[in-house]
Specification:
By secondary structure, this protein is α/β, with parallel strands linked by helices. It contains 9 helices and 13 strands. The protein has a 6-stranded mixed sheet with strand order 1-2-10-9-8-13, with helices on one face. Helix 1 packs parallel to helix 2.
Length: 294
């Protein structure tokens, strides 16, 4: 058997004994859509960087949300190299239209009215595709433009362990690997060992270490041919699909006081296979689409 640490395109031919395992950001975007839909949040706005990564996440989120009866009402593709996202946010929240109405009233009445712009009220959530540095700039600007109370979701890219000013991300919800937001005893032990030998890399490459650890521990499962198991790994609850891809169901965190705080799970939110058999494997084996149209 061969295990690759990435996902091939959907149209790739199947190959016997070929397995795929990845920290797929597109899959995380789909999990955001499923969780929001389970909570009854179906009308979304989206902000994503104007690059290939952002467009892939936006397309994955949009497709999954639509599959669950939701829709993206509007989206903005922002320049990730600028610190000012006010134009994108105002267009997304229709604040620019609110100000235009004010200007028309002032002109028609010939007086200057006291007026506070209003954002649109027809949305249930915001999906923010952003890396940590950019997210720390966008989140305060969303608050400034009256969107601080709207449930805001992202992917694990929004949080980087050991970085500064994480309080700017407060309130954002995102899925992430247990290694970071819900470590068990073994995870903590391995992390301490990594920090001892590679202190400069342990936090920055945390998710990749977790991926490598899970890939190593998947070997006996792959060799056994028993692909009905759900496996509690350091990168999530792992399970096989019909293309021999190993998918992840992730725990969730909300940023509070600059730290990710584990959220309660939602029953069946991310469960894609009803007949999978749960097995706490790690404890029994010990080792140190197209973009939405405007």
């Amino acid at each position: 058997p061969t295990l690759t640490l990435n996902f091939l395109p959907e149209q790739s031919p199947r190959s016997v004994g070929f397995y795929q395992f990845s920290l797929s950001p597109e899959d995380e975007a789909r999990q955001v859509a499923r969780r929001a839909s389970t909570l009854g949040q179906h009308r979304a706005l989206a902000l994503a960087p104007n690059n290939a990564w952002g467009k892939r996440l936006l397309a994955s989120f949009k497709e999954e949300l639509q599959d669950h009866g939701g829709q993206i009402l509007d989206y903005q593709l922002y320049d990730p190299n600028t610190p000012d996202f006010s134009n994108n946010i105002q267009r997304l929240l229709l604040i620019d239209e609110s100000r235009a109405r004010r200007d028309r009233l002032n002109a028609n009445l010939g007086i200057k009215l006291e007026y506070e712009p209003r954002r649109r009220e027809d949305i249930d959530l915001i999906f923010l595709a952003a890396r940590a540095t950019t997210g720390k700039l966008i989140r305060p600007q969303l608050r400034f433009y009256y969107a601080g109370s709207i449930p805001t979701y992202s992917t694990s890219a929004i949080y980087q362990e050991g970085s500064r000013n994480n309080s700017d991300l407060n309130g954002i919800m995102f899925p992430d690997v247990p290694w970071i937001i819900a470590p068990d005893g073994l995870s903590l032990e391995v992390r301490e060992t990594l920090a001892e030998y590679w202190p400069d890399q342990a936090e920055r490459r945390a998710r990749l270490y977790a991926l490598g650890f899970d890939a190593y521990r998947l070997t006996p499962i792959i060799n056994s041919g028993n692909h009905t198991l759900e496996i509690e790994g350091m990168t999530g609850t792992l399970y096989f699909d019909d293309r021999n891809r190993i998918l992840r169901r992730l725990p969730w965190a909300r940023m509070q006081r600059g730290r990710p705080v584990l959220m309660d799970p939602i029953a069946a939110t991310e469960r894609l296979t009803e007949n999978a058999i749960h097995q706490n494997f790690w404890l029994n084996t010990s080792t140190t689409a197209d973009l939405p149209k405007h």
